[in-house]
Amino acid sequence: VQLQASGGGLVQAGGSLRLSCEASGRTFSRYTMAWFRQAPGKEREFLACIRWSGHTYVSDSVKGRFTMSRDNSKNTVYLQMNSLKPEDTAVYYCAGDREIILSSIRNPDAYDYWGQGTQVTVSS
């Protein structure tokens, strides 16, 4: 599986962005997909994931502002980000894995496939 993330950019605080991650492969619908981010000097941070069932898990740090969804017909997952803050500035990565247990969904080491990352910069 190859993942291609897009949609990053420069936005003012309070604005919105929607990130996309398109996957290759015919078994995409069975994958757990996730979004992480990494700011300079910080560890990679879990944001959200969506299971093949459509069930989503969102980190408390962005709950209420970020929403993840998937469109299996397009092999794509999305991260809708609203009310963006300067501290949301980071490189955003999508990740995927077919076999991942619930207790590991927040662990970046549990994901086998990663997109290249897309930069999100939020100005104050």
Structure summary:
This protein is mainly beta.
Structural category is: mainly beta
**What value does the average pLDDT take?**
95
Helix content: under 10%
Overall strand count:
11
Which residues form runs of ≥5 with pLDDT under 50?
A: none
How much beta, percentage-wise? over 45%
The biggest sheet, with number of strands, parallel, antiparallel or mixed sense and barrel status, is:
7 strands, mixed
- Shape designation: globular
SSE succession? EEEEEEEEEEE
Supply the number of helical segments: 0
Alpha-carbon distance between the two ends? 37 Å
Radius of gyration: 13 Å
In words, what does this structure look like?
The chain is an all-beta fold. The protein is built from no helices and 11 strands. It has strands spanning 3-6, 9-12, 17-23, 32-38, 45-50, 56-58, 66-71, 76-81, 90-97, 113-114, 118-123. Strands 2, 4, 5, 6, 9, 10 and 11 form a 7-stranded mixed β-sheet that branches. A hairpin with a 4-residue loop joins β7 (66-71) and β8.
